[in-house]
Amino acid sequence: MTCIPRIVLRRCGEGVALRHTWHVQKIELSYSLAGQRGADALIRNPLMDLLHAVRAQGSISAAAKALQFSYRHVWGELRRWEQLLGHSLIVWDKGQAARLSEFGDKLLWAERQAQARLSPQIEALQADLERAFAVAFDDSAHVLTFYASHDDALVALREHAQALGRLHLDIRMTGSVDAIRALNEGRCLMAGFHTPEQPRSGSLAERTYKPLLKPGLHKIIGFARRSQGLMVARGNPLALGSLQDVVRQQARFASRALGTGTRVLLDELLAQHGIAPTQLKGYDSNEPSHAAVAQAVASGQADAGLGIAAAAQARGLDFVPLLQERYHLVCLKSALEQPAVQALRDLLHSAPWQQQLSQIAGYAPTQCGDVLSMRQLLPWWDFRKPKA
Prior knowledge:
With 388 residues, the chain is α+β, with helices and mostly antiparallel strands. The chain has two domains: 4-136, Arc Repressor Mutant, subunit A (Orthogonal Bundle), CATH 1.10.10.10; 142-377, 3-Layer(aba) Sandwich (D-Maltodextrin-Binding Protein, domain 2), CATH 3.40.190.290. The protein is 40% helix and 24% strand. The chain is built from 14 helices and 13 strands. The chain has helices at 46-57, 60-67, 71-85, 102-136, 152-164, 176-184, 204-209, 243-248, 261-272, 290-298, 309-314, 339-349, 351-358, 374-377; strands spanning 4-16, 23-34, 90-91, 99-100, 142-148, 167-173, 190-196, 218-232, 253-254, 304-308, 318-332, 363-365, 371-372. Strands 5, 6, 7, 8, 9, 10, 11, 12 and 13 form a nine-stranded mixed sheet that branches. A two-stranded antiparallel ribbon has the order 1-2. Strands 3-4 form a two-stranded antiparallel ribbon. The longest helix has 35 residues, at 102-136. It is elongated and about 100 Å long.
């Protein structure tokens, strides 16, 4: 039996105004799982159920029987709510039928108004929750948690997988360093990071990633090759063709945040060309994504920024390619046989996905879905014994 989420409304606290003369109630939404959805109110609240029962039955004992509770429970709950809300809910006259106080009547009126006004949104929320939980009860569906460096192709992959309905990618965009740390700490099953296609031994990339990745423990899965370069205004008015040009023109530069793969790449390129970070106007800026860098250039806040071609194209910018890099997917060796990772590899191997990836500006599929040699991709690991 598939369990259906049922939205529950409950009181979660109160704020007390000056002199404690007015209680401001806070509302919290939660949900429950049930074999089937009830046919009554869309939002359920235990206090409203009690008040409805008292009004309909005319006595506490009859209300308790209708709700299948004990008289003591219903009486105690009504008293507890009165104390919490600071208002009487029931007119407690001995020898007379129980009736709601004016405040109790107003509470039920407020609930009717909310139910009528919010029912379309509540029904939509229930449907969304049911669709989401249907995945948990579908043995053929898989969920794979990703921490990954910002990448347009990964976003496209998530949408492509979602359309097929068998693999759901829970992707958290973060820096490359933080993504691998999340993998090593068990917070995700897969991480995404990127390096130059030909990383040099002794490079900043080596010093950054080598302490985080271990041959025999980690496995790299091929994903894509992409272009990194300068995103500049349409027409490239400052004729920027390199980082040296950016420094020479004193152009305003938009940088990615520390810990991101693109910031590592920028530092690597600056070192290769003998440029001190202080020479780059805007080096200390901290844009959270390629799209944010592109927006900074498109809005005129910066003249250039390092990023991917797809982000430049999306904001109507020109793109000056500087180098090719590999975007890697990495998991623990022990995860390779897990169904979610197998499903991901099958998806990456598929012709429809590789065709879609080829259509993204600056991207090309490269050994997509293959388990690759870390030593060949990241050549700072060399286990060959030196000659005598």
